[in-house]
Amino acid sequence: MDSKTLRTVRELAAAGLVARDRLPALERVAAQYAVAITPGLAELIDTVDPADPIARQFVPTEAELDILPEESGDPIGDFAHSPVEGIVHRYPDRCLLKLNHACAVYCRFCFRREMVGPDGLRPLNAAQLDAAMAYVAARPDIWEVIVTGGDPFILSPRRVADAMDRLAAIPHVKIVRFHTRVPAVAPEMVTEQLVAALKAPGKTTYVALHANHARELTPAARDACAKIVDAGIPMLGQTVLLRGVNDDPETLTALMRAMVETRIKPYYLHHADLAPGTAHLRTSIEDGQAILKAMRGAVSGLCQPTYILDIPGGAGKVPVGPGYLTDGTVEDPAGRRHAYPPKVE
């Protein structure tokens, strides 16, 4: 396999990841949505399996050209809640800080797929970064800043440290959370310098890792995560429920257990957003609820994420997991119903 990141469909064909007769259609996909597959990720793909769950996440497909009426280029309302460039402020006590709009890899289901990549939004320049930090500093209700993008872990340690130094100077910001795929898809980028840059006096840092299949947590990925956790930085896990990738109890359980073994606490299981050309990867909410219901009671509580729907248009995230309490009865993990409160004779 090639030793560099694959960025064109012709490079994917040369690496044996797509058939050459598909190139014309896939060129149209790549012209619209960025492509990037790191060497380590390419090695994980089983080229013999046409339904390989790693390939489904990262290798472009002609189905991405089929756009449904309900799909949107900004499915969760980032632009509607962006008061200044680089800031998304949807909730009172926290905001997103999007320093850049590039990633180490490009997921085929990304809800920001029309904003990220070489032809997407530009990274913040000096003046825009000043304005973004000034916005945070002027709002004492902002307790947490979530650094995302794009993937902030592709930035140099110097740029990450600069952002942390600026946030350290804002007294009311107590929590800084980084969202990334890098430890799983390019673990060699998690250096001691990067880990050191994530910390700042007076701030508590969290790192949220996005991973969707247990195979992504390779020994190298687990070592990269260990560098972060051993430095005193807690890690959370974020996963998107995807058809043909993790949409059954056994596969999702294996991923959640792999996270917990890596000292990552599963946090959110996202219902896939209505991003353009992603219908082939979306499940139904009912399917997601059934999967989590099958896991409840059978799998450690440490492995139970919250199933979340990000309401289209920017209204916010809400839990949509299975319900157990109905009409004065509660259902146990075995499916039996019990009166609650218990009836007293």
Structural write-up:
This protein is an alpha/beta fold and 345 residues long. Helices cover 28% and strands 18% of the residues. It contains 11 helices and 12 strands. The strands form 2 sheets. It has a 9-stranded mixed β-sheet with strand order 1-2-3-4-5-6-7-8-9. The radius of gyration is 21 Å and the shape is globular. The mean pLDDT is 96.
What is the structure about, briefly put?
The protein is an alpha/beta fold and 345 residues long. It contains 11 helices and 12 strands.
**In percent, how much strand structure appears in the residues?**
15-25%
Give helix and strand order, one letter per element, not per position: HHHHEEHEHEHHEHEHEHEEEEE
Overall shape: it is globular
| Strand arrangement, major sheet | 1-2-3-4-5-6-7-8-9
Q: Which structural class do you get from the secondary structure elements?
A: alpha/beta
**What is the assembly state of the chains in this entry?**
single chain
Give unreliable regions as ranges.
none
Task: Report the radius of gyration as a whole number of Å.
Answer: 21 Å
Distance between the amino and carboxyl termini: 71 Å
Mean pLDDT: 96
Number of strands: 12
Number of helices: 11
The proportion of residues forming helix, as a percent range, comes to: 25-40%
Largest sheet geometry:
9 strands, mixed
Any chance you could write out the topology, listing elements then pairs?
Elements lengths: L8 H6 L8 H10 L6 H6 L8 H6 L28 E5 L2 E5 L27 H12 L6 E5 L8 H12 L6 E6 L1 H4 L6 H6 L6 E7 L8 H12 L4 E7 L7 H13 L2 E8 L13 H11 L10 E6 L4 E4 L5 E2 L2 E3 L5 E3 L6
Parallel strand pairs: 2-3, 3-4, 4-5, 5-6, 6-7, 7-8
Antiparallel strand pairs: 1-2, 8-9, 10-11, 11-12
